[in-house]
Specification:
- This protein is of the alpha/beta class.
- The protein folds into 2 domains: about 40-95 and about 360-455, Alpha-Beta Complex (Aspartate Aminotransferase, domain 1); about 110-355, Type I PLP-dependent aspartate aminotransferase-like (Major domain) (Aspartate Aminotransferase, domain 2).
- Helices cover about 40% and strands about 20% of the residues.
- The strands form 5 sheets. A 7-stranded mixed sheet has the order 5-13-12-11-8-6-7, with helices on both faces. A 4-stranded mixed sheet has the order 1-2-3-17. A 4-stranded antiparallel sheet has the order 15-16-19-18, with helices on one face.
- The structure holds pyridoxal-5'-phosphate.
- Pyridoxal-5'-phosphate (PLP) binds near residues 92, 156, 183 and 281.
- Pyridoxal-5'-phosphate (PLP) binds next to helix 7.
């Protein structure tokens, strides 16, 4: 018998029975969520008032008129107007196991039993150690030198922490390199790096960043040559001034552009010769290729110095090598995350590691192939309406019509009305993109979503 009182509480028969009853009640509540459904006319007025109120209180209307009821089933989600939709964007890549997952219900009950809601600098629970152990284990496989992991509560903060650790180590070097069309977050520093002028409109410059063209799959050699040349020009213009280059190996917000191993290696070789750190932003890509990390998928393990993750992991994190480990006092936060998020992260990582998600035959690749196959057929059938598909693994998208922002937005709103949640990415062209909830989706869901896409295209 464990001597810890908390262990006794978790094993208490009433707690075990309560969990069983909760799961049973959830299963029953989900029985009516089986397919896309229109809104309930009796709820529409109240729903619209709530939307208006949300917009007024936030100072800006919500992008989609989406207010969740609190219940869903896999890829399907019930909204507070009684409608049911396919969630193929999952909060931009967050709800990886789908809606109302019973494993996450259980881990949230475990979290609710704990004495505090949040964990942080002065209050880490056992679950934080569990999560850290798993994360470092996954990140340090093969020839990777990633030995440490610092938890945090947003992708932008994971990147901020990465920038600070790098800058401290590489001081007085303070410039960064990044790819055109990259996304890094919306804080002062990450917003500076994000290659989207509108998100830093009116803000002062806090970091010096120089951009390189990203890989162009239509002309691999020329594109590698052009990027290497641009890199060398920057290096000769600012010798010794660069601390790091930040890589998004598959550009997400930029429009679903995957890079390529030899392209990355050509750049990394020069960075290493110049003592410039290699930082990989995997906030969107983590858990979405057939390997846990995209740097593993592109076979770059031995080169990475710093890596950040977020989104599907629920808890965000900055991984770094022994060499980059910062001095005491540089990284600290009141909150690292809620216990519920930390427990959920562990459940999700275990599910991906042991649930048949990874590798050629794994769910991620198989679901991706199914989705790609349908989109290829649609592209052949409607060449003027759909070009693509583009992307890798669970990051799949296409260009609709002329790829203008206006028509792409109109398209995703039409998809929304027809019961599918998607989003846009990139500019010139803007693409329609999906981040399906890999752990909650079925092949039939993918088929059904593609039928709806076809209906909207026609
Ligand atoms: C590549 C990348 N980096 C950083 C971020 C910022 O993450 P967050 O929105 O959690 O701050 C995002 C968010 O979309 C992202 O896609």
């Amino acid at each position: 018998m464990s001597s810890l009182n908390f262990e006794q509480l978790k094993k208490d028969k009433r707690v075990i029975e309560a969990k069983r009853l909760l799961k049973e009640a959830l299963r029953e509540a989900q029985e009516n969520i089986v397919e896309v459904k229109e809104a309930n006319p009796d709820l529409v007025d109240t729903y619209n008032q709530l939307l208006k109120e949300a917009g007024r209180l936030r100072g800006r209307d919500l992008f989609f008129p989406y207010l969740g009821s609190g219940l869903g089933k896999g890829a399907l989600v019930e909204l507070a107007d009684g409608s049911v939709k396919y969630d193929f964007i999952s909060g931009i890549g967050v709800h990886y196991l789908g809606h109302s997952h019973k494993g996450l219900l259980e881990s949230s009950v475990d979290a609710a039993l704990e004495d505090t809601i949040m964990q942080g600098n002065l209050q880490q629970g056992l679950s934080s150690v569990e999560l850290l152990r798993r994360l470092v284990d996954i990140a340090s496989q093969g020839s990777s030198r990633l030995a440490h992991c610092f938890l945090t509560s947003s992708g932008a903060m994971a990147n901020e922490n990465a920038f600070k650790a790098i800058l401290q180590k590489k001081s007085p070097a303070s410039r960064f390199l990044a790819f055109r069309k990259c996304f890094s977050g919306r804080t002062l520093a990450t917003g500076q790096m994000t290659d989207k002028p509108e998100i830093r409109a009116g803000l002062p410059t806090v970091l010096n960043i120089d951009y390189l063209p990203f890989y162009d799959a239509t002309q691999p050699e020329m594109s590698t040559h052009a990027t290497v040349k641009a890199l060398q020009e920057h290096l000769s213009e600012h010798p010794g001034e660069y601390a790091a280059m930040v890589f998004e190996l598959i550009q997400g917000e930029g429009g679903y552009y995957p890079g390529e191993t030899e392209f990355f290696k050509s750049i990394i070789q020069i960075l290493k010769e110049n003592n410039i750190a290699v930082m990989i932003d995997e906030i969107q890509t983590f858990g979405r290729t057939k390997d846990f990390f995209a740097f593993q998928y592109f076979k770059l393990e031995e080169y990475v110095d710093v890596v950040t993750i977020g989104k599907m992991a629920q808890v965000c994190a900055t991984f770094f090598t022994e060499d980059i480990n910062p001095k005491a006092g540089l990284l600290s936060q009141t909150f690292t995350s809620s216990t519920a998020a930390i427990n959920a992260a562990t459940v999700i990582l275990d599910e991906v590691a042991n649930g048949g998600y990874l590798g050629e035959e794994g769910k991620i690749n198989q679901y991706s192939l199914r989705f790609i196959g349908h989109l290829q057929q649609l592209s052949a059938k409607y060449p003027d309406q759909l070009q693509g598909p583009f992307g890798v693994g669970a990051m799949i998208g296409f260009t609709a019509f002329d790829g203008s922002m206006e028509k792409s937005k109109a398209f995703i709103f039409k998809l929304y009305e027809n019961g599918v949640l998607s989003f846009v990415a990139g500019k010139d062209p803007t693409r329609i993109r999906f981040l399906m909830p890999v752990g909650g989706v079925t092949l039939e869901d993918i088929d059904q979503v593609c039928r709806i896409i076809e209906k909207v295209l026609m």
